[in-house]
Task: inverse folding
């Protein structure tokens, strides 16, 4: 049983590491996108799309870097994506000064989970070759 616990900690460490990396990437990309939006006067309708792309890219890169164990990449990716959505929601809501729960949060959860699943599948299969 102790051996299984060590294995589970390895999976847990991968998920924690992936979420930290994804959050750092997202923060950097949000700052860069804010600069571009300001410089090029992007329409307000483009900002939610940019934010979704940033979240998906952050999850994808973090999964590629962190998920190294060979099994259940889809599940670990889903968990990473779902947790990342909640962590990023909390961090960006704190920065904004208000928490808004609504349909957009549900959309973010679905997109984050699906992005994580796809990213986990790709990360595990890239490591095989």
Result:
């Amino acid at each position: 049983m102790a051996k299984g616990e060590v294995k589970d900690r390895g999976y847990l460490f991968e998920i924690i590491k992936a979420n930290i990396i994804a959050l750092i990437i997202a923060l950097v990309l949000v700052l860069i996108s804010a600069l571009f939006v300001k410089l090029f006067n992007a329409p307000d309708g483009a900002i939610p799309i940019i934010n979704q792309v940033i979240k998906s890219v952050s999850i994808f890169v973090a999964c590629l870097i962190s998920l190294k164990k060979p099994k259940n990449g889809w599940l670990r990716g889903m968990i990473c994506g779902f947790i990342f959505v909640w962590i990023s929601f909390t961090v960006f809501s704190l920065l904004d000064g208000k928490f808004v729960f609504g349909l957009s949060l549900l959309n973010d959860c679905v997109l984050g989970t699906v992005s994580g699943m796809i990213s986990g599948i790709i990360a595990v299969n890239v490591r095989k070759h």
User: Anything to note?
Assistant: The chain has a mean pLDDT of 89. The longest helix spans residues 2-40.
